Amino acid sequence: MNSPDSHDAMIEQQAGPPLVDPVDDHAILGRTSAVFKSYESFLRDRLTHLNATRHKHWQRDYSSVDAYETSIEPMRDRLKAMLGFWVEPKDRQPAVATNRRLLLEHEKFTAYLFDLEVFDGISTYGIELIPVASSPHPGLLIQHGYGGTPEAACGFTADANGEDYVYRSMGIRAAMHGFHVIAVNHPTMTNLPEDQMPPAAGDAPHTQFGKNRLHRMAVMAGGALFGIDMMTSSRGIDLLNHCNSIGMYGLSQGGQSALFLTALDTRIKASVCSAYFNTRIDKLIGPHRALNYLDSNEEDKFFSEVISHFTDSELVSLIAPRAFAVEAGQHDGTIDFERSLAEFQRAKVHHHNLGLEDHIEFIGHAQGHVSATVQAFDFLKRHLHA
To answer: Is the peptide bond before 287 cis (omega within 30 degrees of 0)?
Structure first.
């Protein structure tokens, strides 16, 4: 008898030819393909059903603003639970910008780099832009998108004002409009070789596997990576809490942040979601004019209740009665302009039912995946200076 520590157990079947004549490989492929298709068909049908019956989870009371805010609060709590990692502002340690150093002195603003602890064990960095003019300044959180940085979102990179997939100096323009700006970093990659991932068919080379690694660990830890990102952005709001009013403006996944964080953090009084807003089930699983996320390498876009409870228009109902705007480009290859507009029509119902039609706006433009409109800052100034 072998001892428990022995490594010489008897091998019953040695490597070699099969024991019987092998079956046809094409027949196996046909059977396994049929099983795969049945799984996908089942799941698509289930998601379609969840999308169609989503309204049953919401019990909104439009009789007054106070009644409405009370009626939606349980769903805000459910959103926090879905994303995980949320700590209420009253329960946090005070946010302190440390290692603050000068980035740029401009005639209209001064820019600083700083470090920031999100909560014990997680830290980030950010950029602060303070207008030189001495009048009171509303605060504005500027949020970069997938693979971006605070430097890129604010306008401190060589391609800051490029043709497409750029922020068009969002942060610098905000400071020139008189906003006290904070921009914080969400991680995407470490730039190490092990964080590179082979591209999916038809994709450009993908070097952002690091974010997927973090998301997988966050899921096992009871939430989603985007939940930690929302805490990071909300700590930026903590730094702006001295301002008499606070807004938010984000592009692409920063637009996703501007939608979700405004739903989560009621200290944000006005928000502009740029180059993200969409008919969510189409963007997630297709069909969609642009690449849908199901066929992309971005795992962090998927949450357990995003279709059944928290599509884009439903998230807007957690923002109402506060101000919200969608910025969308007619030639944006990621959002599908028509579907963005269609989702907006569903979203605006909540503000309209409360008699606050001027608190929600669709800002369309004739360019691509950029944040470049005058109207976006006009909207923010109108609702944050009041």
So the answer is: yes
Q: How far is CA 115 from the centre of its chain?
A: 22
Which DSSP helix (H) or strand (E) runs through 117? strand 109-119
Q: Residue ranges per domain, the chain?
A: 25-57, 59-384
Which tens digits make up the pLDDT trace of 170-220?
999 999 999 999 999 999 876 665 555 555 545 544 556 889 999 999 999
Asked whether the predicted pLDDT for residue 283 surpasses 50, the reply is: yes
**Burial bucket for residue 197 (CB in 10 Å: 0-12, 13-18, 19+):** middle
The count of residues in the chain is 386
CA-wise closest residue to 68 among 266, 254, 252, 210: 266
Question: Strand, helix or coil at 9?
Answer: coil
Amino acid type, 363: I
CB 185 within 8 A of CB 154: no
CB atoms within 10 A of CB 71: 16
Q: How many CA atoms lie within 13 A of 27 on its CB side?
A: 3
- The mean pLDDT value for 273-300 works out to 93
Whether the CB-CB separation of 239 and 116 falls below 8 Å is answered with yes
- Asked if 79 and 316 count as a contact pair (C-beta separation under 8 A), the reply is no
Q: How far apart are CA 185 and CA 183, in angstroms?
A: 7
Q: What is the residue whose two structure tokens read 């302190």?
A: 96
Among 38-47, 122-131, 145-154, 286-295, which is the least confidently predicted range?
286-295
Per cent of the chain over pLDDT 70 is 94
| CATH number, span 59-384 | 3.40.50.1820
User: Which two structure tokens, joined as six digits, stand for 58?
Assistant: 């919401």
Contact at 8 Å (CB) between 236 and 89?
Answer: no
Tokens of 330: 């007619």
pLDDT, residue 199, reads 52
Q: What whole-number percentage of the chain has pLDDT above 90?
A: 88
Sheet holding 109-119, edge to edge: 97-105, 109-119, 122-131, 180-184, 139-143, 246-251, 270-274, 323-329, 360-365
